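okkk here we go again. third time trying to get the zinc ion bound version out, last two times i messed up the smiles copy paste (missing a bracket lol). double checked this time i swear
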Amino acid sequence: MSNFSRRDFLKTGGLAGLLAGTTLAGCSVAGNGSSGNWRGGAKNVIFMVSDGMSIGTLSMADQLKRIQYGTASTWMSLYEENRVKRAMMDTASANSIVTDSAAGGSAWGCGVRVPNGMLNMGANGEVYTPILTHFRNAGKKTGLVTTTRLTHATPASFIVNMERRGNENGIAIQMLERGADVLMGGGDRFFDGEKREDGRDLFSEFASNGYHVARNKQEMNGASSDQPLLGVFTQEHLPYDVDHRNNPDLAANVPTLAEMTDKALQQLDNRNGFILQVEGGRVDHAAHGNCVSGLLYDQIAFDDAVAVALRFAEDNPDTLLIITTDHGNANPGLNGTGSGYLETQNMFMRLSEFTASNAVLLPKINRDSSISAIREVIEAHNKIAISVDEATMLRSAMRREFRSAYSRQSSTGAVMGGIMANHTAVSFVSGAHTSDHVELAAMGPGSEAINGLVHNNSLFNLVLDAAGVVAG
Ligand SMILES: [Zn+2]
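finally!!
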């Protein structure tokens, strides 16, 4: 455990004793920004999260990028060039050794481990001030950028207090009330008055609070930095990168994570500094679904956003850049294949031919599809000729008749993942989050304290200390 700071008294050794730090965060969530309540070395903080990223995901994305595009991933080149401090981070929540994204994000967002499913609130209704409020009160700008719905757990964990992460209608309202200088992602059904159950048109309410509201990439690019920016680009989550690239309409209208990150940094850069969270949120979704193309190309798209953040940090050395994940998920890996493992790379490279994620492909087949139709759809999108046997297994999974020894591997997604593993050599252990310790990398002021094993909730104090932002 690193010796972070004088105020780092939230160290917790296990699932017990987690409430030790509850007095720190206080309960006030209101209040507008006053000026200059900061004095740390880190004027700016960029907090990058690849959600649900097991170590295999990080490794394979780097390997795929090297083979397919001829360059290392930015994240791994930071290791290769020894430019970052690095630690393992544990990921437990208050009530489980395996966290969900709400509790995982809240550990960073308020410095306290909370129960799974809750956002910056304790089991007995304790309310912990979220990190963006502290930064705003210190006169800094704040921003959240994600590929999920904007109201999803990880962005929400930096700005809201909510008993249930599923209350995304309520999360959108708290985002409006608390305000941030940049908010970008998907999920317009929680902002559009025609789609919200209470009929409130949050787009108009944001606009009357002075926001530039962007509904596509062009409108995002048209925003000027003297106005706060709300960008909501899709009804649900943003598309997986592999689907985004292969759909001209999406490619033209929906920004990539790197483009959103670039725009957010332009909006936020100011004399007093800022905090920005950037989430590659669908890495997690692809892991849940055992979808290898969704997983690795979204991790590469996240890495492109890391490159944008890194360029900013190079130009602005008073920036603390943190790159991490909230938990492992499904622990995918590239399995040695063939005599002497020599077939592995050829099989792995088949991924470069994939043109769709399972989210696009699987809805085109169903329990009544013919075996030949199933084979044709997969060949059309993934350039892989699955066997009659494999297609039969997939159909039987869709009919809920397939049984694997590990019951979680009997679902359609898991069977599709297993079939793709026969052809790409990438397999998953489940469709669930795991307890694995995860990678934590950082550079810039405050990063010196990162080494060894870090508890996830300790990052809250580390960030506040680095930026000299006083909680309270
Ligand atoms: Zn998840």
